[in-house]
Specification:
The protein is α/β, with parallel strands linked by helices and 402 residues long. Helix content is 36%, strand content 23%. The chain is built from 11 helices and 17 strands. The chain has helices at residues 75-97, 109-119, 123-136, 180-194, 216-229, 252-260, 275-280, 287-299, 314-330, 352-359, 367-379, and strands at 2-7, 10-16, 20-25, 29-34, 39-44, 47-51, 57-62, 68-72, 151-154, 156-157, 176-177, 204-207, 238-241, 263-271, 303-310, 339-344, 391-395. The strands form 3 sheets. It has an 8-stranded antiparallel beta sheet with strand order 1-2-3-4-5-6-7-8, covered by helices on one side. β15, α9 (314-330) and β16 (339-344) form a beta-alpha-beta unit. α1 (75-97) packs antiparallel against α2, α3 (123-136) runs antiparallel to α4 (180-194) and α9 (314-330) packs parallel to α11. The radius of gyration is 23 Å and the shape is globular. The two termini are 27 Å apart. The chain binds iron/sulfur cluster. Residues 159, 161-164, 167, 169-170, 209, 243-244, 269, 283 line the site of iron/sulfur cluster. Iron/sulfur cluster is lined by residues 159, 161-164, 167, 169-170, 209, 243-244, 269, 283.
Length: 402
Amino acid sequence: MVHQGYWKNQSVTISVKTNCLTISIGSKEVFSYDLAGRLWTALVEEISYRRGLDGKVVAKWQTPDKTRHRRWLSQEESADLIQRGHDLLNNLLLNLRKNQIDLNPPLDEKGWRDLQTAASFDNSLSKADALKYHQVYKPVGILPPDQYISVVLQAAEGCSFNTCTFCDFYRDRPFRIKREDEFREHIRSVKEFLGDGLSLRRTIFLGDANALVIPMPRLIRHFEIIHEELDVERLGGIFAFLDGFSGERKTPKDFAHLAELGLKRVYIGMESGHEPLLKFLRKPGAPQDVLQAVRNIKAGGVAVGIIVLLGAGGKTYAEPHIQDTINVINAMPLDSEDLIYFSELVENENLPYVQNAYQTSLQPLSAEERIKQGEAIENQLVFGLEGGTPHISRYDIREFVY
Ligand code: SF4
């Protein structure tokens, strides 16, 4: 239900939805909260903000030349934003109670309740919430962009490989699969933590990096436990990464079984179709393993998301990276249910990739060359007419927020 009125010579819109509450003042200030009252997103003076469940806030904006920018806020800046929303909502509430704003239609019981819950979200609640997040989760390292609004359930922790030189998402934890009782307890803690904010979440994401390497009998039990604890259908099904291919391999029959249990899409960090580059990156498995895994997954009735790493291997590997990646993707039975993500290599001094690149005198690709590399791959992809074309988009891991 959308309620509109005037306040301080500006339009005010209160949008009371089944999954969130959004307050807009004029066209320049917007605050959205989940139904547990957590600040979720904001727009202030053309800068958009997104608060993660861990309390961190990322700011994004565009300059007139259409360049996109992003920056993580400092604690003080995040606190200012939360305080700004808190003050705005409390002021609004005060004026509504005094009948100084005429809303059309007037707020109903749910509208009042949601507004009061969101108005109570201040910096002490935000800090307590972030603390609770760290009790419930090992920090969620990364998700595919279409899964930032999922409910993450860590059936396993870490990555069973942890060898790739460009990735440090899970270096802080050994790989381990949760016991059944432990996993059930984890799901209950996640539910309790999210509270009414669960309604905002659109899918279930099975963490961490390669939960699908869990052997089938245990994996099936983990899926069954999810069904016992959550309404999987209402939440839009289960999604997961499958990364590296030297371990447990699943058959089309296994994937069909998992599809029956709600598995919708598997994301594969293929990175490249060029095997020597994968070896340079110390990525386990070969392109042919990825291809076979995709065939098995698709034959089981599950969609895939293929992730390609742009700029990997710099100028040394640029050409074969493009050509072999095109060849491998073109051999995949992809259709309109599937996704292809182009993710730019993000280097930092702590990554072994950077040391290896230095030692082998690798010339990096510029940002522009990386974009061109993505375009060169995309332009030569060919898909069957029958199933339609997969959705292709960019994946900037620096924007990840859960
Ligand atoms: S397999 Fe995936 S999660 Fe594991 S180290 Fe490699 S890129 Fe990172």
